[in-house]
Amino acid sequence: MKQFLLALQFLTIIPVRIKEVAEENIAQSMIFFPAVGLLLGVILCACDGLLSQLGLIRFCADTLLVGLLIILTGAIHLDGLADTVDAFASGKDKDGMLRVMRDSNIGTMGALSLILALLIKIGLISSLASAKYPALILMCVLSRWAQVCAVFFLPYARGEGKAKLFIKGMNRNIFIFAGLSSLGIIFIAWRIKAILVFVSAAAFTWVCLKCLRRKFGGATGDTIGAISELAEIVVLFSVIILEGG
């Protein structure tokens, strides 16, 4: 239970505060990242049901859904996306890109990436038909699972940082359990088609990890957040493709 509350604390702004945390519990909390994704997905589905009763046009309602997700997560993954894009766009070497990611200011390319990511996400959600609720669940669960993959497969790219504690304590059991729980959740949500979405998310994550290893030599908190945001888009796009099948 403590690890779940830690995961909730790390991934959301839901008021959970655990004062004393053992170092090994930090990585172990990643077992419950997919469960936190499920909670976020259920909240989005419930709010979508409420918004549908208000008579709002679909685009407005879906914009509010995306806004709610941003609020619930404290926009931490979006911040990571912007910083990562700024680093790639800088054209610097590894150390230079890591310094760019440390900069608290968002550059032009980072800002554009945020705008595009949000517009694409809203547009994709608005394009969903009967599979909207499964899509919201899959989006939230598999994007958190992608974070677990990044922590498991990549070393830490910096000397110190918050994400180092996750990577330092990560092990095969955490990775396997998080993967199996993700598969179980999404299979219940959308049956066999969910497995195909899982494969597409896994393939995309693998490509991202190869790129990050080549460019940075590993992962940072920002790059993990960027993978999560982009994985949400990939999942939504995959559901739309499979929805009519």
Automatic annotation (TrEMBL):
GO annotations of cellular component type: plasma membrane
Subcellular location(s) of the protein: Cell membrane
Membrane-spanning segments: 28-51, 106-129, 135-157, 194-212
Pfam families per record: CobS (PF02654)
Cofactors: Mg(2+)
InterPro entries: CobS (IPR003805)
Cell membrane recorded as keyword: yes
Domain of life: Bacteria
GO molecular function terms noted in the UniProt entry: adenosylcobinamide-GDP ribazoletransferase activity; cobalamin 5'-phosphate synthase activity
Catalytic activity: alpha-ribazole 5'-phosphate + adenosylcob(III)inamide-GDP = adenosylcob(III)alamin 5'-phosphate + GMP + H(+); alpha-ribazole + adenosylcob(III)inamide-GDP = adenosylcob(III)alamin + GMP + H(+)
UniProt pathway: Cofactor biosynthesis; adenosylcobalamin biosynthesis; adenosylcobalamin from cob(II)yrinate a,c-diamide: step 7/7
Keywords: Cell membrane, Cobalamin biosynthesis, Magnesium, Membrane, Transferase, Transmembrane, Transmembrane helix
Magnesium among keywords: yes
Principal cellular location given in the protein's record: membrane
Topology versus the membrane: Multi-pass membrane protein
Any single biological process term in GO: cobalamin biosynthetic process
Protein EC: 2.7.8.26
Function: Joins adenosylcobinamide-GDP and alpha-ribazole to generate adenosylcobalamin (Ado-cobalamin). Also synthesizes adenosylcobalamin 5'-phosphate from adenosylcobinamide-GDP and alpha-ribazole 5'-phosphate.
PANTHER family: ADENOSYLCOBINAMIDE-GDP RIBAZOLETRANSFERASE
Similarity comment text for this entry: Belongs to the CobS family.
Name by which UniProt lists this protein: Adenosylcobinamide-GDP ribazoletransferase
Lineage: Bacteria, Pseudomonadati, Candidatus Omnitrophota, Candidatus Ghiorseimicrobium
GN (gene name): cobS
